[in-house]
Each structure stands twice: as structure tokens, then as C-alpha cells.
Write a structure and sequence with these properties.
This protein is of the alpha/beta class and about 300 residues long. It folds into 2 domains: about 1-185, P-loop containing nucleotide triphosphate hydrolases (Rossmann fold, 3-Layer(aba) Sandwich); about 190-304. It is about 45% helix and about 10% strand. The protein is built from 12 helices and 6 strands. Bound molecules: zinc ion (ZN). The site of zinc ion (ZN) has 9 residues, from α3.
């Protein structure tokens, strides 16, 4: 049984779809290791101002030409204090795409950088479209800077989007996480769900699944409680639960096969019902908490 990564769940595809369906949120949190989250954030910002509105930069319209990678602006060295360099730069030379990260000489993204971005977002778009700010390496925002950011999230200026990119979600205040659509890059590519560097969410899910035979129905329902609340972030967290469960189930089957036990039809059914739950969540807008409950109780039955 192969662990299938469904194209519809790729972060870039989720983001592109939100533009095509005209369901863009004011704030996103992209989490994951490596460069992919920040390059995806840049592509998303460019797609947000593209006149085509198809979820990917068309590369032909004026905003796409302006937002194209430009060695001159990419090479601008930022300084948190705004002395040796500006506190933020642009994506390409597009005036409405703002990019903030930690300056090479700084230990943190400064509160001054956050304030400058807020002021720039409040000015409104130069080009009549959206204004987008990307904060790359948001784990380097200290709590005061995050609190300053919170005010922006509570009252986002119309037509603006904030995209936070962080290596791990745990570095971001819960109050910010709960106001942002969470886009998770698979922590499981490569090292697997038991990677010591996996996020604490992944680790907690794996611990729960490992003990699923010993958990009562009540305990599993309690665990599923964490997926209640605003739909978008809850759905994103349940997507993570489904991804991790699919991989966990594959491990289960491999372990059984290694011990000479052929996979039971029940574990194949469990794999199929995970895919069904994924479709319910994405295509039928099923309630995330209910999807989590069905998943956990279903897995308990199939491996118990
Ligand atoms: Zn375009």
C-alpha cells in the first residue's frame, strides 16, 4: 500500500484554489522546513496580484512582470533598525508586495519592521489591487512584535493579505495561529512521522495513534475536541491528522507484513475511509471535529 499524496492537498494547490474560488483569507500561516514554504509564499503573493486570478502568476500581465524576481531588489539587505538598509523590500519591484525577514545582522525581526509593514498595508494598494505582506522566518518575531501583528490581524485593512512563513507553528502565538489559515508543508516527507524534528502536533498525533487500542471512546472524543472552532484553521489541522494517520496506517501494515501477517481487509478499508474523510472535508465542507471523531473511532475499530 503506497502512501498517496493527493495533488488537491498540496499547499500551492490549496492556496491557488482559494484565489480561483475567490475565498482568500486575510491571514495565512505557512509552516514547514526548508525553502519551499517561503518560495510558495512568494508565488502566492504574486498570484494574488496577477490580473488573471487563476491562482498562479500568468507571467504576462503587468503585475506579473513587475513582481518577477529581480536581482536588484532581492539583493537588498534589510536592517531591523532601518539604518544600514530598509526594514522591508518588495517582491520584484511590485509596490504592493512587501517582504520582511530578519536582517543578516539582526537576532530578531524587529517590532519596527512589523510597524512599518502595518503602516504600508494601511496605505492601500498603489495599483488598485491587493496589498500583500510576507513575513518570512516569522519564528524570529518576539512576543511583543507578534502582539503588534495581532492588532493587524484583528482589523485587517480591506484588500490586504498577510502571509507568515515559519519553520514551526509552535513559535507563533496561539492568538495569531487561530486567526490565520494554516498551510502545513508535509513534515513527513523524507524522515517520516517519527522524525525527532517533526512538529509537536505531529508527535502528539503519533502518540495518540500508537496508544489507540488503549484509549476509550471518551478519550478519543476528547482528543477530537481540539478540532472545533473556526472552520478554516480547524480543517487545516484535521488535514494534518488525516495525513499523519494515513502514514501511520501504512507503517502498521508494513510491520504486520514484516511479521508474516498479511494485511487485514479491515486495514485496507481503514485506508479507504481515510481518503473518503479527506474528500468529505475538502469537497463537502464536513465539520472538522466530526471528521476527526470518525477518523479516530474508525481507526480504533480497524486496528483494535
Ligand atoms: Zn499575471
Amino acid at each position: 500500500m503506497q502512501h498517496e499524496i493527493h495533488r488537491e492537498n498540496h499547499p500551492a494547490e490549496i492556496l491557488g484554489r482559494s484565489i480561483r474560488n475567490d475565498r482568500v483569507h486575510s491571514s495565512y500561516l505557512l509552516t514547514g522546513a526548508g525553502d519551499l514554504p517561503s518560495t510558495t509564499a512568494r508565488d502566492f503573493a504574486r498570484a494574488l496580484v496577477c490580473r488573471d486570478g487563476q491562482g498562479v502568476a500568468c507571467e504576462n500581465c503587468d503585475p506579473c512582470r513587475r513582481s518577477r524576481e529581480d536581482p536588484e531588489t532581492e539583493g537588498i539587505v534589510l536592517d531591523g533598525k532601518g539604518k544600514r538598509g530598509p526594514t522591508y523590500r518588495h517582491v520584484g519591484d511590485h509596490p504592493d508586495l512587501l517582504w520582511v525577514e530578519r536582517g543578516p545582522e539582526d537576532t530578531r525581526i524587529s517590532i519596527g519592521q512589523v510597524r512599518d509593514i502595518q503602516a504600508a498595508l494601511r496605505l492601500g494598494a498603489n495599483e488598485g489591487g491587493r496589498r500583500v505582506a510576507v513575513i518570512n522566518g516569522a519564528e524570529w518575531l518576539n512576543p511583543q512584535a507578534q502582539n503588534a501583528l495581532l492588532r493587524l490581524l484583528e482589523e485587517p485593512p480591506p484588500g490586504t493579505n498577510l502571509v507568515l512563513v515559519a519553520s514551526r507553528a509552535s513559535a507563533i502565538l496561539a492568538t495569531i495561529r487561530s486567526r490565520s489559515v494554516r498551510i502545513r508543508f508535509p513534515a513527513t516527507s523524507g524522515a517520516g512521522i517519527r522524525d525527532p524534528d517533526a512538529s509537536e502536533e505531529v508527535t502528539l498525533i503519533v502518540q495518540t495513534l500508537d496508544a489507540i487500542r488503549d484509549h476509550s471512546v471518551g478519550q478519543l472524543l476528547d482528543f477530537a475536541e481540539q478540532y472545533r472552532g473556526a472552520r478554516a484553521p480547524a480543517a487545516e489541522s484535521v488535514t494534518e491528522l488525516i495525513d499523519v494517520s494515513a502514514e501511520w496506517l501504512c507503517e502498521e501494515v508494513k510491520t504486520r507484513v514484516a511479521h508474516g501477517v498479511s494485511p487485514s481487509s479491515r486495514s485496507l478499508d481503514a485506508h479507504r475511509s481515510l481518503q473518503q474523510l479527506r474528500r468529505d472535508l475538502i469537497q463537502r465542507n464536513a465539520n472538522p471535529q466530526m471528521v476527526a471523531e470518525r477518523l479516530l473511532l474508525g481507526l480504533r475499530d480497524s486496528v483494535g
